[in-house]
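Q: I'm writing up a methods section and want to include an example of the input and output format. Could you take the sequence below and give the corresponding predicted structure tokens, formatted cleanly so I can copy it straight into the document?
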Amino acid sequence: MKILPAPFACLRKESRPVHLAIGMFDGVHLGHRAVLRQAREAARSDGGLSGVLTFEPHPSHLFRPESPTPMIYPPAAKQARLREFGMDLYLEQPFHAPFAARSATEFLEGLLATVPTLTSVAVGSNFRFGKGREGDAGFLHQFLGKQRVRVHAVDRVQAGAEAVSSTRIRRLLATEPIETVQPLLVDPYLVVAPVQTGKQLGRTIGFPTLNLPFTAEIRPLLGVYFARYRLAPDPPDAAPRPAVANLGLRPTVEESTAPVLEVHSLDEPGAGPGDTLLVELLQLRRREQKFSGLEALRAAITEDTEAARAHFRSLP
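A: Here is the clean output for your methods example:
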């Protein structure tokens, strides 16, 4: 997937048809994928390129800076999931005051100017754009239809009695075990971050870890997880390494305010400080707790590791 900054100048010389999915896509979840699939399949049908046009940061940072909408995935994890889904292009439009002041017409005029071979656009049926949110799917049909650009407004996907939405997933991530949320995310919850040099405490008690900063705005339940990971240079189909991971504040050894993801590989780690890992949290083993000391912590980690090995042995 090619990542392009706005204003996407290099697309002005692109001769192939471009099919864009437009939206935030912060979780690349089941509902988002219905929109993304429309662009991807349209591109496959005519030998064109499938692209994502997204915005950073979320508009709420401009309009509600005191309470912005938290994103499920930071950009790095979102890009990784979009790449795995098979999107060709990632276009990121900075969302700032001058851009927010553009009318719906000005937004589309600018889009056509920078993507001359735009052939189709896919959006969610509730998509709004332009100053004052004046543009909607009907406006897209009216304006882009005159330019022979097809518009696909994709209905929301239902799962159970409720539509699949980022709002629903944010609520579940903060309150339910991660495996409860996975059917809506489709793929396991993903953390993408560089390995940092830690305090080497895990090594001293026999469980060395790869330590990653956790920067996502939505935090899953703190605790111990069965996990798997691969290095960022690995292809998406590379065999992941099994692991047990702790997402937490480490209350037994320090009172941290920023969570850290500590990944203990069940095989050779194959990574070190400076490497970027893609870590998938598969199942919550237990919630984070404070132990009486290092020996109690070591005993718990031993049990967690054995449980993780049994979990991976049981998989087909």
